[in-house]
Design a protein that fits this description.
This protein has 265 residues and is an alpha+beta fold. It folds into 2 domains: 130 residues, Diaminopimelate Epimerase, Chain A, domain 1 (Roll); 123 residues, Diaminopimelate Epimerase, Chain A, domain 1, CATH 3.10.310. Helix content is 16%, strand content 46%. It has an 8-stranded mixed barrel with strand order 1-2-3-4-5-6-7-16. The radius of gyration is 18 Å and the shape is globular.
């Protein structure tokens, strides 16, 4: 058995286990361990787990796992939280450049009391598929966006699973977002693949919702507020031709607790 040190951070209720793995001791293939650590009853409990590693040419590398134990595509709130984590463990910069699974990202952060405000640069969105009652796009992770009414009472999990496990998506999965425009704010509820449940927030999902709303002409602004179940976020972008560029996700990241756990790794 070995002691594994970790910290827990959350961004708008999206919670993560963060591990300083600059010595590269964590077995990247140990999906059983990751799943155990993320388990809310038998482990620490989180929507996902991230390793911070050294990477030449960058301030750090972000390696992200969903709570099912599998390495996953980009996590926007995770990207914001790992930037705050980098500051907590001593990297101490106002702006970071880091590498994630979908490429490089910049993160600007400032500390306000016990909470960080993090502005994260996201990848360009080059294609938005518009269906009869949905939009589908990739913001670092794939997102299916559907606009609904009476969102607070919407059966998110049941309806999302019909989409996530249909013939098109069941092999690789997709995140599913239900969105409603209320009093000038986009309200969102998200079902995340890999977690296989609704989460309190999803950064790439919030980003997808704003771009989908603009693409479908529900909004005309290129910077817009979003209210997730766990907190408020903001998304901005520049549209050049058919491409959404200079995409940024802004919101809070907060340290929750730190600890040690006995594990085999």
């Amino acid at each position: 058995m070995s002691l594994l040190k970790f910290q827990k951070l959350q961004g708008a209720g999206n919670d993560f286990i963060l591990i300083d793995d600059r010595e590269e001791r964590f077995d990247l293939t140990n999906s059983v361990l990751v799943k155990f650590l993320c388990d809310r009853r038998f482990g620490i409990g989180a929507d996902g787990l991230m390793l911070l590693r050294n990477r030449v040419g960058y301030d750090f590398q972000m390696i992200y796992y969903n709570s099912d134990g599998n390495e996953s595509s980009m996590c926007g709130n995770g990207g914001r939280c790992i930037a705050a984590f980098a500051d907590i463990i001593g990297l101490k910069k106002e702006q970071y450049l880091f590498l994630a699974v979908d490429g490089e990202h910049s993160a600007e952060l400032s500390l306000h009391g016990d909470e960080y405000l993090v502005r994260l640069g996201m990848i360009d969105v080059v294609e938005v598929e518009e269906g009869e009652d949905y939009l589908y796009l990739n913001t670092g992770s794939p997102h299916y966006v559907k606009f609904v009414t009476n969102l607070h009472a919407y059966p998110v999990v049941d309806e999302a699973r019909k989409i996530r496990y249909n013939e098109r998506f069941k092999a690789k999965g997709t995140n599913v977002n239900f969105v409603e425009l209320v009093d000038g704010v986009l309200c969102i509820r998200t079902y995340e693949r890999g977690v296989e449940d609704e989460t309190l927030a999803c950064g790439t999902g919030v980003t997808a919702a704003v771009i989908a709303a603009f693409q479908s002409r529900r909004i005309t602004e290129d910077s817009f507020a979003v209210k997730a179940m766990g907190g408020d976020l903001k998304v901005g972008f520049v549209k050049k031709g058919g491409v959404y560029t200079s995409v940024c996700l802004e919101g809070p990241a907060k340290f929750v607790f730190k600890g040690e756990i006995d594990v085999n790794f």
